[in-house]
């Protein structure tokens, strides 16, 4: 029996199983060598993933804010993917609860979806991830840090608004971003969960070919025939534009600050880790835009 098959017989849990990334990780595991009954989908509301239960996945209810629910959910789990919480501002205490429950339950491998260059990134968003990584190290549980760059979907989910305004807005200047699709990151996470030799590894994950926001605008122009430009704004103006578009102010400020990080290179990587782990080239900008336009 090879290492991959051995790991596929371990009980593997994925948190955030109702979210975009968690769902894709479970789909990828199901499409590989992992039997459905060896997958534990951890979720706040089991109704949201009734489809996985119907396919034989073990669905267990837990909330990051309720430690006793996490203890029960991790019973017998050997390998765990902690998908970072989307409740920005609450993340560190929530993640601490998950890590402590994992330690108590005897989880022997914990993968965590962090952010690119979490140790040195100056983006405000990176602080929670840096602190979470530290808590994981201190827990003594063997870990893998999946340090993800941006999702393509951060842009392609905005295509209708971009087309309406004839512009991509940002504060990223000529900075390059190594974006990849959620499906690419999910493929890498599934490999790390279902195969061996990832203990105490740090993966810097991003798309194979970086691009600027001007290049993003040019690709959208090319595929739609509409003229789309990139409008670079001072960071305060960009934050106000995001607030005007309906984002809560704290999130708008964090996203505007992230563009300054993009400009500095905090979201740029050429490690090749993502395509190597996923086993295929990452989604290209042209493919991502085409896919986004079809949705
Ligand atoms: N790299 C990037 O570009 C990027 C972009 C956006 C986000 N992210 C980060 O990556 C993570 C995964 O991305 P995604 O697209 O899958 O996000 P998502 O679709 O928003 O999913 C987040 C998941 O976290 C779960 N969750 C939130 N609070 C919870 C709690 N208190 N207890 C248990 N579960 C909780 C949600 O459950 P419910 O369904 O019950 O709400 C959901 O399943 C995000 O949470 C965020 O930290 C990264």
TrEMBL record:
Residues 9-255 form the NmrA-like domain. This is NAD(P)H dehydrogenase (Quinone) 2. Its EC number is 1.6.5.2. InterPro entries: NAD(P)-bd_dom_sf, NmrA-like, NmrA-type_oxidoreductase. It holds the Pfam family NmrA. One of its GO terms (molecular function) is NAD(P)H dehydrogenase (quinone) activity. Keywords: Oxidoreductase. Transmembrane segments: none annotated. It comes from the Bacteria. Gene3D superfamilies: NAD(P)-binding Rossmann-like Domain (3.40.50.720), UDP-galactose 4-epimerase, domain 1 (3.90.25.10).
């Amino acid at each position: 029996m090879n290492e991959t098959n051995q790991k596929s017989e371990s009980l593997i849990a994925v948190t955030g199983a109702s979210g975009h990334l968690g769902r894709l990780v479970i789909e990828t595991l199901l499409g590989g060598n992992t039997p459905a009954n060896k997958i534990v989908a951890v979720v706040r509301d089991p109704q949201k993933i009734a489809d996985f239960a119907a396919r034989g996945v073990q669905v267990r209810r837990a909330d990051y804010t309720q430690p006793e629910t996490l203890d029960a959910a991790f019973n017998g789990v050997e390998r765990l993917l902690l998908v970072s919480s989307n409740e920005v501002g609450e993340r560190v205490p929530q993640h601490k609860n998950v890590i402590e429950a994992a330690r108590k339950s005897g989880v022997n491998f914990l993968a965590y979806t962090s952010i690119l260059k979490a140790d040195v990134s100056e983006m405000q968003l990176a602080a929670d991830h840096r602190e979470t990584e530290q808590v994981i190290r201190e827990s003594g549980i063997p870990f893998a840090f999946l340090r993800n760059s941006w999702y393509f979907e951060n842009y392609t989910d905005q295509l209708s608004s971009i087309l309406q305004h004839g512009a991509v807005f940002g504060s990223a200047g000529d900075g390059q971003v190594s974006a990849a699709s959620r499906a690419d990151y999910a493929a890498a996470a599934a490999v790390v969960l279902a195969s061996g030799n990832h203990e105490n590894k740090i993966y810097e994950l991003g798309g194979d070919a970086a691009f600027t926001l001007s290049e993003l605008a040019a690709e959208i122009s090319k595929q739609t025939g509409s003229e789309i430009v990139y409008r670079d704004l001072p960071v305060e103006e960009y934050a106000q534009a995001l607030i005007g578009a309906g984002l809560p102010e704290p999130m708008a400020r964090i996203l505007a600050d992230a563009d300054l990080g993009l400009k500095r290179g905090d979201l740029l990587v050429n490690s090749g880790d993502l395509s190597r782990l996923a086993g295929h080239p990452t989604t290209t900008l042209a493919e991502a835009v085409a896919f986004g336009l079809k949705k």
